[in-house]
Structures are given as structure tokens and as C-alpha cells.
Amino acid sequence: MAMDLAHRRYVTRTIAFMVPYVAINMAAISGAFDDRSRPGSYLLGLAVAAPVIGQLWATLALMRDADEYVRALTAKRFILAAGGAMAIFTAWGFVEEYAHAPHVPGYVVYMLFWACYGLVTPFVRTTR
Predict the structure, then answer these.
(1) How many CA atoms lie within 13 A of 65 on its CB side?
(2) In the prediction, which pLDDT does 1 show?
(3) Greatest Cα pair distance in the chain
(4) Contact by Cβ (8 Å): 42, 100
(5) Are 109 and 82 in contact (CB under 8 A)?
(6) Each residue's pLDDT tens digit in the chain (128 positions)?
């Protein structure tokens, strides 16, 4: 099955944003930024966040550029996944606060969002 133009653009944009994301994180894991100063730490954090923001934009652009059915289906999945990720992360935040559970960094919500998106996708098959 051939991809339409909107999906080809989405794949291209996602790759374009995820390659620098992986490269920056691999460099950080390998110790390339271990001697950074305070301002450099902020810049590194923003540099890693930028591709994540770009990839979210790519998903929103897919919704904008796709036909009406794909737009509605993707939007419904996106909204359910965002709500699920916020609910789970908020609940875990309260468990951290009151039960002294281990801390989970805030950036995990991005991964949790896509996990929720993957979980809701097989069940959200219509735009109703």
C-alpha cells in the first residue's frame, strides 16, 4: 500500500527530528557533555527537547495535511493518548509525593504518551 503525500511528509519529518534526538542522547550517554557548565546544561536540555517538540509538530502537521477521515482518527487517538499519559503521570506524581515511590523524570511523559497512543490505536478504528 503506497503512502499518500501527508504520510510521506510525516515520516520524513519524524526521521529528520529523531536523528538529532538520538545523536544528542547517544553523545550524552557516551560522556561527551560530562564537563559542561551551568549554562551549557540548560542548552543541552533545550537541544534534546527541540526534536521532541518538532516531532509533536510533525504529528499535528499530519493531522492538518491528511484527509478528513485520517485527521479525525489521528486527532481522536492523540487526544485519548494525551489524556491517558497525563492521568498516569499525575497519578504517579501523587504516589511519589505520598508513598515516597521512586522519582520518574518529567521527560518520560513523552514516551508514555506514545505508549498510550500505541495502546489506544487498535481500539480507535472509527471517528465516532
Answers:
(1) 15
(2) 57
(3) 53
(4) no
(5) no
(6) 567 999 999 999 999 999 999 999 999 899 888 877 888 888 888 999 999 999 999 999 999 999 999 999 999 999 999 999 999 999 999 999 999 999 999 999 999 999 999 999 999 999 88
H/E stretch holding 80 reads helix 68-99
Q: Are 25 and 48 in contact (CB under 8 A)?
A: yes
Listed residue (114, 66, 67) closest to 88, CA to CA: 114
Can you tell me the distance from the alpha carbon of 128 to that of 125, in angstroms, rounded to the nearest whole number? 9
Query: In angstroms, rounded to a whole number, what is the distance separating the alpha carbons of residues 53 and 113?
Result: 13
Cell matching residue 96: 511519589
What distance in Å separates the CA atoms of residue 105 and residue 112, rounded to the nearest whole number? Answer: 12
Cβ atoms of 14 and 55 closer than 8 Å: yes
CB 96 within 8 A of CB 55: no
